[in-house]
Structures are given as structure tokens and as C-alpha cells.
User: Fold this.
Amino acid sequence: MFKKILIANRGEIACRVIKTARRMGITTVAVYSDADAKALHVSMADEAVNIGPAAATQSYLVIDNILDAIRRTGAEAVHPGYGFLSENAAFAKALADAGIAFIGPNVKAIEVMGDKIASKKFANEANVNTVPGYLGVIADAEEAVKIADEIGYPVMIKASAGGGGKGMRIANSRDEVAEGFASSMSEARSSFGDDRVFIEKFITEPRHIEIQVLGDKHGGAIYLGERECSIQRRNQKVIEEAPSPFLDEETRRAMGEQSVALAKAVDYESAGTVEFIVDAERNFYFLEMNTRLQVEHPVTELITGVDLVEQMIRVAAGEKLQLQQDDITLTGWAVESRIYAEDPYRNFLPSTGRLVRYRPPEEGRDEDGLTVRNDTGVYEGGEISVYYDPMIAKLCTHGPDRDAAIAHMSDALDAFHIDGIQHNIPFLAALMAHPRWKEGRLTTAFIAEEYPDGFAGAELKEKFKRRLVAVVAGLDHKENERKRHITGQIGGRAVEFTKRRVVQIGRENHTVDIVDDGPFIRVSHGDDDVESVVESTWTPGQPVWRGKVNGRAFAIQVSRILNGYRLTHRGVEEDFFVFTEQEAEFAALMPVKLPPDTSKMLLCPMPGLVVSIAVVVGQPVKAGEVLCVVEAMKMENILRAERDVTVGKIHCNAGDILAVDEVIMDFE
Ligand code: ADP
Ligand code: ADP
Ligand code: MG
Assistant:
């Protein structure tokens, strides 16, 4: 076994690999860029080597710098994680030449599977089902249209060198093929430096289901069940689960056996993933093979009990797989939520800055057999920089069945407290509460279909309303109790045996009677004779309320606002005001402050630099046309007209720095 390994990656995956290596008694070497000098993976590793400036192209992607770090530390093997150099055949070759073990597959497997055209041809020969399509390189738009006509619409145009959802287009007609062919090709050229594209049938109502495989250097290969990753936004996975709610035993075995056949055909000797697209009739088609550890591998670990990183290290060291196919059993259900530094309310714009608060839910298994696992590479006070992937953490839960795993995920998301940057937890929480997700009626279009206009927060359902009103009554009561006990502080309300309060949500009033009953607070809701019993150890100032309402445990995020609280729960973010009856009467007389009518202006969606203004005063503009370009976090954001408008006044010039919501221009 290796004594020392180097992890050629950063973030959560570097931390995750270090954990297993340490458990195996292997010394670890981290590499880091200037921007990552204080990163978690650096402090976790036994040794760390700086490999260059912040930009990945000058550090994590520079093969020579990694080789240099290996030489300096005497590491015997390299784990590449995912992304970066993990699927780079030149890197695997360079390591082989230097006599260093690559904790991944052989060079040939990386080469064949790294190219979508080559891998599809290879899969065809290994008798793996592939998506019907044309596997030649397509010369021009005319040929593309001819091929699409033969395949039948809709079709998908893909970059052969593609990855991460880039360089892909769906086309429903000849015009769209011609257009998609050109844009797919140019995106492929700029993203991958390789403009070969091909066309295949677009599978309708598709589900993304992938098989985890594991091979060794002695011809052994097994599969470890599937993961369903149909919840995607722009072809990028958001939520994954294992097993899939859609597969039956027969389909699972057929997919597993084809995946193993493919793995054997390329002498696959590590952990890898065979991705399939599955249609409504459970026909499945090979998409691609990812020759690395996959982002979502923890859900497989949770249902199989196998540590995939340990297996990768063992087979890289030449060990024979100790696991046989029959040893692999799938127990319970696991769900993963990818927590990203992005603003779900602003079209998922990336968000960077300091993590002022980072309090994940507690990890581990509870007495009901429910597990929380949180793979992360950040810490409180750390920085989310503009240079790398904006993933903050991968939150996983496991339970005896799908409903339990989902319910546990809802609770874990509610308890996860992040402050200082925007994050997608409210969106993930809303997904967990979504009836269609709960039913498992998924396709890769789920998010596009269910959130066609983006995400504006989940709706406050009646069933949550009473629960949250009761909690708010309890919060207010505790805060008043505390004020009464602090001498000199005024404003604490007078003690009464029963207190009547009005909890206001929007313009809706909920009158409640509150009784302090030792560890409980009893809250009666209006006339309908219903009582909520609230129990919590929350004290004023804590950002997460944990407790029980009528015996059921919850976590709710709480922040103090004037005259009330802002609660976040199950993806709902809502302001609750608490008044005495008299205050409520006055409050009712207050004019409602209407939000400004933003339909007549263009506001700057993020702090940034105005690069260019594309229109002039008085110009009529059609919906979708470019109004201006704002640069933020090294990305140019094109702001387009949402409807047909005529440009009125323009309030800024190219070169100006704008704050969020600053007015860029008015419309007439
Ligand atoms: P998964 O199927 O696990 O979501 P993806 O293909 O989306 O995998 O990518 C996983 C990671 O690898 C992501 O961090 C992504 O940004 C990165 N990645 C994928 N393809 C490439 C590529 N061609 N070049 C650089 N990074 C890539
Ligand atoms: P990448 O390398 O970017 O991960 P994939 O080929 O794995 O590319 O495709 C990414 C996603 O695009 C899939 O998860 C699926 O949602 C969708 N997709 C790809 N090919 C097809 C197809 N032929 N029909 C329908 N959806 C597809
Ligand atoms: Mg893929």
C-alpha cells in the first residue's frame, strides 16, 4: 500500500479523499493555489505545496507544477478528484512516465471515454445500447440538417469533447438544427478547443440514471447500483438520489451488466460511472462514461456501505477487488443536495464573498436510523472566491426508504445556516417539498417545467402557516420574557396569564392566545379551537430555531426584523409581524408601502461594471434584445429586454460601477 499520496484537487473532494487516506494510514499531500492558501484541504492534509497563482490554468491545471510537487514531497500516487486533470490523458501519461501511480483508470480508458464520438462507437461494439444517431463528424449546417431529418426530430447536437453540460443544443426543426449546429460548434471551440459536434436523437421525457462501476487491474469489475440525477438545471445536476425510484430489478440488472461489459472492454481499473438516458418505457441508452470519481458518489456509498475512494486507492496499488457482485446490496435510500454559492432569486447568479456564518447540520446517524453526511471544503470565516466552482457543500441524507430520506433532507436543509453570501438552500428546500419530486415523477426537464419563470420562493402553504404562526408567537414570548428580566430595559410587555397577540402575514391577521406552560408554550389559534404546543430551547439571537410543534421536530431559520421575524422553512421565506391587539389596529391604518414598479426600468441585478450600453434614448426594443452588458465576477452578463419597450432615460455610462438595484435605464 502507498505511504504517501498527493491530491491534485481542491475543495470538498480534496477533503473527502484526505479523510479516507488518513483512515487507511496514508500520509496526504495537498496542493493549493495562492487563492487557496487558507483553504480547508490545505489545513487537513499532512503536507501542502503551493502550485501557482489563483487561476486554475496557472495552478491546478498545470501538469508540470503537480509533477514538481510530487518530486518535492515524494508522493507515490495521485488522486485527481473530479474536474481539473481527472480526465486528462496527458496527465495520466505523464504520471506513468514518472513512475507515479494514478488513482484512476488507465490512459486508454480515459482517451476512449473522454471523447463522446469515440466512446459511443466503442459502446456500440461492446453491445451497449446507445442513443440512435450519427457518429461521424459533421461538416456543415446543411449536412447537419440532412442527418437530423434522417434521425427524426427532436434531436440533440453535442460537442464530442463536451462536458459539464456545455456545447449541447436541442433542435426541434431544420432551422433550429442549422442554428444549434453553429452555436454548439462555436461553444465547443471556445470551451474545449475542439469543435467536432455530432447529432443524436433527443430522448423525450428523459431521466438521467447512471451506474457506478468498479474495476481492478486483474480483470475484475462490478457495478454498485444506480444513481438518479434527473433534477438538473441547464444540464447540470442539482439533486441526486440512490437508488432510482424508476428502475425495476430487471432494468437495474440489465444496465449494470452492460456497464460492467463496457468497463471490461476498456480494462477499466478504478471507480467510474456509466451515464444513461432512460425513456418513459424504461428503454435505456448509453450517454457517456465518466472516468473518475463522480461528484454525487456519496449517495452510492450511503446505500452500499462501500467507501469508493478506499477501493480506488486499493486497486491503484494493485490489489484485487475483494468485493464480488453478490456482496453488493442496496440498503435504504440516499439523497444529495448540491449547495451552491448562487442567488436562486436572481436567476442563480453566482455569489462570492466571505462566509460570515457557516453552520451545517450535525453529521451522523440518529436513533431512528437516519443519517446526515455533509461533504464540504469550506469553513466559517472562509472565502468563496471567483476562481473556482461555486459549490459550498454536498449535503446527503440516508434513511430506510425514500420518504424518510427526503423528510430528513428537508429538516437538514432547514437547519443549515449560511450567512454572508447568497446560497441555493431555499431552492433545494422548495424542491424537497415539491409534490412531483416526492412522487418521483421526474425527467431532466423537471426544473424547467416546474419553475419556468425562475424561483421566487416557495409558497406558504396553509399547513405550514399555523405551525409558523405558533413558532413566531413563541419567539415573541421568549423575547419579551427576557426583556422583563433585564433591568433597565423597557419595551418588554406586561406579564399576563394569557397573552393575546396578532401575528400578521402580509395583510392577513392571525389572532392567537399564548399561555406559558413550563417547558411548553401553548398557542390557541383564533376561534377554531386548535392549539399548537411549542417546545424549544431557542434563545433570542440564535439564527436557527430548533424545537417541536405538537411533538414534531423542526428547524426554522429566524432573523429579527422591525416588529417581527423573518422565517425560512421548507423554501418559504416570509415576514411575520407580532402586535398587541391595539398595535394591530394602528398597524392596519398604516399605508402599505408598495414596491416600486420595476416594469418600467432596468435595474442592475448585481454589483458590477457597465461594459457597454447597446441602446439609445427613444429606441424601440423587442423582447430578448440586448440592452446593456454588465461585468461582475469576471463574467459578462448580458441584460436583455423582458418585453417590447421603448428606451427612456439612460442613467449610466459605460465604465460606471453600479450597486445592486441601481437604475440603469427607464422605459417609456
Ligand atoms: P457530474 O456528472 O459529476 O455532474 P460533470 O460532467 O457535470 O460531472 O462535471 C463534474 C466536474 O468536472 C464539475 O466540477 C465540472 O465543472 C468539471 N468538468 C466537467 N467537464 C469538464 C471539462 N471538460 N473541463 C473542465 N472541467 C470539467
Ligand atoms: P456532459 O458531458 O455535459 O455531462 P452528457 O452527454 O452526459 O454531457 O449529457 C448531459 C445531460 O444532457 C444529461 O444528463 C441529459 O440530461 C441531457 N442529455 C444528453 N443527451 C441527451 C439525449 N440524447 N436526449 C435527452 N437528453 C440528453
Ligand atoms: Mg454527463
